[in-house]
Amino acid sequence: MSLEDASLDILPGELLAVVGENGAGKSSLMNVLYGLYQPDAGTFLMDGKPVRLKSPRDAIARGIGMVHQHFMLVPTLTVAENVVLGREPTRRGLLDLNRACAEVAATAKRFGFQLDPRARVDTLTVGSQQKVEIVKALHRGAQVLILDEPTAVLTPQESDELAQVMRGLVAQGRTVVLISHKLKEVLGVADRVAVMRRGRTVAVVRAAETSVSALASLMVGEGSRGAALTGVPATSAPGVHDSQGEHAGTVTAGPIVLEAKDLRAKGDNGRPALQGVSLTVHAGEIVGIAGVDGNGQRELAEVLTGLRALEGGGGTLLGGPLAGLTPTLAKARGVGHVPEDRLARAVVKAMTVEENVALGRHRQPPFARGPWVDFKGRRERATQLLATYDVRPPDPTVALQALSGGNQQKVVVARELDAEPKLLVVVQPTRGLDIGAVAQVHARLREAKARGAGVVMVSLDLEEVLALSDRVYVLYEGRVTGHFPRKDLDERELGRRMLGAESDHG
Amino acid sequence: MLEVLHSLLFSTLDAAPALVFAALGAMLSERAGVVSVGVEGMMRTGAFCAAVAALAMPTPTAVLVGMAAGAGIAAVHGYLSIRWRSDQVVSGMALNLVAMAGGTFLLESLYGPNGTPAITQLPRWDLPGLSAVPLLGALSGHAAPTYLALTLPFVFHLLLTRTPLGLRLRAVGDKPHAVATLGLSVSRLRWGAVLGGGLMAGLGGAVLSTAVLDRFEQHTPAGLGFMALAAMVFGRWTPLGAFAAALFFAFGNALRIGLASSAPWLLDLVPQGFLLALPYLLTLLVLALQGQRGHAPAALGTPYEQESR
Among A224, A312, B231, B301, which one has the highest count of C-beta atoms within 10 angstroms of its own C-beta? Predict the structure, then answer.
């Protein structure tokens, strides 16, 4: 696993942040503190006494609570049921839901949360669900609260609110451990910051005495890989810059590649997911789609790639009608797709890298010659792509699952861009990737744009949307609630629209 | 007319218990997230063991033996799917095949192909006040399982919706990781549900050999286990829904018997095989009409692994 000789001191009543790249071991360390994982070696002291946490039950009993990155809520149960689960109040052997609701309402009120205990969890916004998670821990008497990447899915407004909640808890004498990779945010709220790298804690610094860049270089380690952080990947093509401030030049809008009008589609649950979305994408621009998770972004991407049928609306996509689009048709017209869940939709993990590179174009040269697989051509092209896209290891014959997530994603991006798409639909292209891989993927998207492709980028990460997009549409409950050209991009305003605020202009 | 209805109702109530018990058992297991295609095999095991036991002991005790046998073979399913996280459909089907072949082998080697010797059936109870009332009289004259089948669904409903255990079972079928992070044991809950499901399926099987028939026959339960699964799906994984669906299927069965005996001319028009297939056709129709499995527990069929999210 991913921890090697990691040490961490947590002081009572402080707000400690733990930062590090993906895979640095932050979550693993916290899961050990919460009793979910068992350490192979090492000790854990609480108030100076050694303690063994065999399961979360032990951790909870000792006043440790954890809010996981992926919420641990049962979506079909109510808020109160989720909170009391495992320590249910009963009356004559039966569940006493009224008392449960009253207790949960009391806890929520004590800590200043607005929650309806009788609401079903799957009807709540992500921000509210997170509050349920926090209440769940506090309801169990948590003195130490661990929050794992709590702001990854929140709007800026919700993040601010969370920061206040955390400071409030610390003011009440509780201890908060915040895991994050958003350095700016961490510095704004934490007392101390612990930096992890490759399973070790490499530094612990006072937040007041450090800076974003100092933390960043601690995170990736000095030297060789430092370059990735400052934004210029070692392999990026000349002229392509990746820093946020320096956005690639003026936008010369090319011809329209996608014009969608009043798109309507149903989600997997049968409820309307798109309720009249109109958007335009030109060649040579990156159009960002921002929004809180579950507001129709996924369905929009699926409609544009032919994976989801339209219920209404239409338009043109690369010279053909959007209605009746199938994945084959989309591919034939030149749509590339980097889906959100690559293991489910983009690759076959048990097949080799070169086989995955050929997928989708396996009938065409250089991957095929007539009805036969062209092994030599495939090997050459795959080897060349692995080198260009800096996939490690650059071996086309290994099974894809042997690669790290970041390298798998690079393979997907390489394959899709190698087909020279005219419209590229990417969803959450850098989720779960480390900083170096993020920079590379971003650079590739800009290359695609420079080459003249229209790019539709769905991302839940507002920073990513802000960094890359020439224009941004904001989706809220299947409708466009905002449309901003780059010069008008404003994080606060985007956040407002993501929560459903409409406005008179735009 | 009244008489036809009466006899339809009577044979519905006679046929329902096996289906109701098996459907409740399957539901219990599946609500906790463990697929239960093995009910057919569990029923067969229960039916066989109950019949054999009834040769040596009082029939009510033999029914308990059948239940234990159902739980015993469910334990194999539990061991494979909870402990070793194997594919639950494959494990369940394997169970069915083992019960199918094992039952036939033991039957033929011990008693011959015609089934076990006849056993004493469970006693039928006459409800004195009721038997004279028109239609309601159909409630009288059944064996104990029928009355149990009329009450147990409500008990299960109470268990699932109103007790802490029920809340935990529902939670573990929808999001086992949430249950684990609260310090509860996912595997213990699932074990409980699988064994409880085995008891119920075993009971369903035992009822077939001790109340519906008076022996274990070659083909018992002849697909009733799958029909119970269909009832569970049709009933949207709820006790009362599964109950209603099981009654509906039992009614289809009664209709077949009723049609064949009260309107023999029908056999000239429709081949007997079609009538035999009627309950199964009803099952197919119902499942096709209902379509999607949108009501299934979210984590159904997914083995729980702590380090996966």
Answer: B231
What are the chain B neighbours of A82 within 8 Å (beta carbons)?
178
Residues near A259 by Cβ (< 8 Å), separated by ≥ 6?
A: A280, A281, A315, A316, A317
Question: What is residue A148's DSSP assignment?
Answer: E
Q: Which pLDDT tens digit goes with each residue over A342-401? A: 888 888 988 999 999 998 888 888 899 988 999 999 999 999 999 988 888 888 999 988
Give me the residues of B, 280-309, that contact A with CB < 8 A. 294, 298, 306-307, 309
Contact (Cβ atoms closer than 8 angstroms) between residue A258 and residue A454: yes
**Cβ-defined contact of B178 to A55 (cutoff 8 Å):** no
pLDDT digit string (tens) for A310-358?
A: 999 989 999 899 988 999 999 999 999 999 888 888 889 889 999 999 9
Provide, as residue numbers in chain B, all residues whose Cβ is less than 8 Å from the Cβ of A25: none
Does an H or E element contain A272, and which? strand A272-282
Complex confidence, ipTM: 0.87
Residue A164 dihedral angles phi and psi, to the nearest 5°: -65, -40
Q: Is the pTM of this model over 0.95?
A: no
Contact call for residues A465 and A261 (beta carbons, < 8 A): no
Cα separation, B114 vs A97, whole angstroms: 55
CA distances from A401 to A76, A353, B110 (A): 33, 9, 53
Q: Which residues contact B133 (CB under 8 A, 6 or more apart)?
A: none
Residues of B within 8 A of A35 (CB-CB) are 183
Cβ B170–A77 below 8 Å, yes or no? yes
Strand partners, A197: A200
Q: Which residues of chain B does A62 touch, with a Cβ-Cβ cutoff of 8 Å?
A: none
List alpha helices for A242-374, DSSP H.
297-304, 327-333, 342-345, 353-358
Domains of chain A: 15-230 (3.40.50.300), 256-350+399-498 (3.40.50.300)
Q: What are phi and psi of A16, to 5 degrees?
A: -100, 130
Q: Residue A49's beta-bridge partner residues?
A: A46
Distance, C-alpha A107 to centroid of its chain: 30
Task: With residue A395 as reference, give the H or E element that holds it.
Answer: none
Report in angstroms the alpha-carbon separations of A389 from A138, A379, A408, A409, B96: 46, 15, 11, 10, 51
Which residue of B158, B181, B307 is in closest CB contact with A56? B181
Token pair of B240 as six digits = 């009362």
Q: At what angle do helices B239-262 and B144-162 cross, to 10 degrees?
A: 160
Kindly list the structural domains of chain B, giving each domain's residue range(s) and its CATH number in brackets, ordered by start. Answer: 2-116+153-290 (1.10.3470)
Of B288, B287, B291, B301, the C-alpha closest to B227 is B287
Dihedral sign computed on CA atoms, order B261, B267, B272, B278: negative
